[in-house]
């Protein structure tokens, strides 16, 4: 994860290699220079019980790598397949851009950026599922 820059709001929490770190009273910016550090913004975390939709399940899988609960090498292939499946469903240009960014980040072992690109699809998925209840 070399070169990752996190901008934190006051009192925002992040998980770094299993330790929860809380920012102080002011906005701050951190540069993560250690490769392969496991980092997750807790405000972005998906609870296992909430991973019930295709996009959320893919996000959750990426999140498990970031928390150190899943092996990056093993999970990468599964994530690539799931992203490919999503690209067959979410065919609009914006979704395709996010999926391409997620794939590129994944191929470069940048799981935080992969998760960030995938999370951008959650509002779209929510709208699509709301429009088609019962799916």
Query: How many beta-strand segments?
Result: 5
Radius of gyration: 15 Å
> Could you describe the largest sheet, including whether it forms a barrel?
3 strands, antiparallel
Q: What's the helix-strand series?
A: EEEEEHHHHH
Mean pLDDT: 91
Percent range for β-strand residues: 15-25%
Identify low-pLDDT runs: none
**Gap between N and C termini:** 37 Å
- Count structural domains: 2
Task: Going across the biggest sheet, name each strand in turn.
Answer: 3-2-5
Helix content: 40-55%
Helix and strand composition category: alpha+beta
**Please, how many helices?**
5
Pick out its properties:
alpha+beta; 135 residues; 5 helices; 49% helix; two-stranded antiparallel ribbon; 3-stranded antiparallel β-sheet; 2 domains
Detailed description of the structure:
- The structure is a single chain.
- The mean pLDDT is 91.
- It is built from 5 helices and 5 strands.
- A hairpin with a 2-residue loop joins strand 2 and strand 3.
- 21% of the residues are buried.
- It has helices at 54-67, 72-89, 93-107, 111-119, 122-131; strands at 4-8, 13-16, 19-22, 28-32, 39-41.
- With 135 residues, it is an alpha+beta fold.
- The chain folds into 2 domains: 1-45, no CATH class; 46-135.
- The strands form 2 sheets. The chain has a 3-stranded antiparallel beta sheet with strand order 3-2-5. A two-stranded antiparallel ribbon has the order 1-4.
């Amino acid at each position: 994860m070399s070169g990752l820059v996190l901008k934190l709001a006051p009192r925002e929490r992040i998980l770094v290699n299993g330790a929860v770190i809380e920012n102080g009273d002011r906005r701050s910016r951190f540069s993560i220079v250690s490769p392969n550090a496991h980092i997750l913004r807790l405000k972005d975390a998906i609870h296992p019980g909430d991973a019930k939709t295709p996009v959320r399940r893919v996000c959750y899988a990426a999140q498990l790598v970031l928390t150190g609960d899943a092996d990056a090498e093993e999970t990468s292939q599964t994530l690539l397949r799931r992203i490919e499946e999503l690209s067959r469903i979410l065919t609009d240009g914006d979704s395709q851009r996010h999926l391409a960014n997620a794939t590129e980040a994944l191929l470069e072992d940048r799981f935080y950026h992969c998760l960030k690109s995938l999370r951008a699809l959650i509002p779209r998925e929510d709208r699509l599922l709301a429009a088609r209840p019962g799916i």
